[in-house]
Amino acid sequence: MRVLGFMSGTSLDGVDAAILETDGEVVTGFGPALLLAFSDAERALLLRATADALAGDGAEPWPASFAEASDAIIAAHVRAARALLARPDAGTIELVGFHGQTVLHRPERGLSIQLGDPAALAAALGVPVVARLRQRDLAAGGQGAPLVPVYHAALAGWLGAELPVAFLNVGGVANVSFIGAAGELVAFDTGPGNGLIDLMLQQRTGERYDDGGRIAAAGRVDAGALAAMLASPYLDRPGPKSLDRYDFSLDAVAALSVEDAAATLTTFTAASVAACVRHLPAAPRRWIVCGGGRHNPVLMAALRERLGQVDDADTLGLRGDFLEAEAFAFLAARSVRGLPITFPGTTGVAAPTTGGEVFGAR
Fold first, then answer.
1. Which candidate, 231, 197, 228, 239, places its Cα nearest to that of 215?
2. Which of 187, 195, 218, 330 could form a disulfide with 177 if both were Cys (CB 3.0 to 4.6 A apart)?
3. What is the pTM of this model?
4. For residue 362, is pLDDT > 80?
5. At what angle do helices 297-307 and 258-275 cross, to 10 degrees?
């Protein structure tokens, strides 16, 4: 199938859209991809909906901001799809994989809230949409996250990578997918990715992120603050486990300068990834990094210092900014074929579980 996948992450950069040729088991081709940035108004609306979600902690009735944000998410996805499908190499898509905008993730309560009406998206695009990919796993006792590991395993096969290998996605939250020598999958959220760095800068300077790691590069790591953050019980827990972007606090760096706080938080992200290795079945031969965090050279240097062989996904012929959008195309194809998308080693669900609901006629 030729499938369009979407991802709009908690960093609130915008909508990633990518076309993938796949049967849900192997990847046979990559179509075009793009990022459609959110407008300032859309981003403000999504931040308000997220704040309301955190304040209400999932209690119903849901706040009015959810409906507004949901409409904005669908409008942005439709714009992204139309821009992508207008490209001469887009071809004709048969299916859409839609994640929605996460505003709250409470897996211990079987709750994960993604905004965006998939039926409205299907009607606007005239193509069936697979969505609500986390809910069946959560209902079966899984974490509902991470969902991407089965796609990482397919990419490891596409690359012909020597196993074991680990994919590290650094978005708002960082997560690892370990593919073992026998193909076994182990995955979990390692800790904050860019989220704490971004939040600190937004609160204290108004900048959205540390462009090129320049702010962290100008600072010094505070050993005491780093040790306090590394004492988090979350890091000692084995997987499967998953995080909400706002589960970690900025208290430890509150007294530091902006530069020192950025340096300390960047090092914390790398150190929390390194701390996860003891929870993996074996040390990976190499780490393949995707997501926005790989654009931060200070973070990448810190990861290499602690992990060894660390490669930017782009240097291997992958699209590091679009792997998650591709993954939701892949998961949509698996879903319509009834193939599992989550596994005991990835979400803690008792048995491999399929997921997703189809909206619109096929």
1. 197
2. 187
3. 0.94
4. no
5. 40
Measured N-to-C along each axis, helices 40-56 and 64-85 cross at an angle, to the nearest 10 degrees, of: 140
The string of pLDDT tens digits covering residues 256-273 is 999 999 999 999 999 999
Q: Which two tokens stand for residue 159?
A: 């690359």
CATH architecture observed for domain 149-316: 2-Layer Sandwich (3.30)
Whether the CB-CB separation of 129 and 98 falls below 8 Å is answered with: yes
Say yes or no: do domains 2-142+328-359 and 149-316 share a fold: yes
Beta-strand ranges (E) seen in the chain are: 2-7, 14-22, 27-37, 95-97, 101-106, 111-115, 129-131, 165-170, 173-179, 185-192, 286-290, 310-312, 357-359
| Third-level CATH fold of 2-142+328-359 | Nucleotidyltransferase; domain 5 (3.30.420)
Quote the CA–CA distance of 34 and 18 in Å, as a whole number.
7
Amino acid in the structure at residue 4: L
CA–CA dist 157, 340 (Å, integer): 18
Q: Is the pLDDT of residue 361 over 80?
A: no
| C-alpha distance from residue 245 to each of 91, 102, 191 (Å) | 36, 10, 9
Cβ–Cβ < 8 Å for 272, 192: yes
Q: Nearest to residue 26, comparing CAs of 155, 163, 197, 162?
A: 155
Virtual torsion, Cα 353, 54, 177, 314, nearest 10 deg: 120
> What's the CA gap between 174 and 245, in Å, rounded?
9
Q: Where are the domains of the chain?
A: 2-142+328-359, 149-316
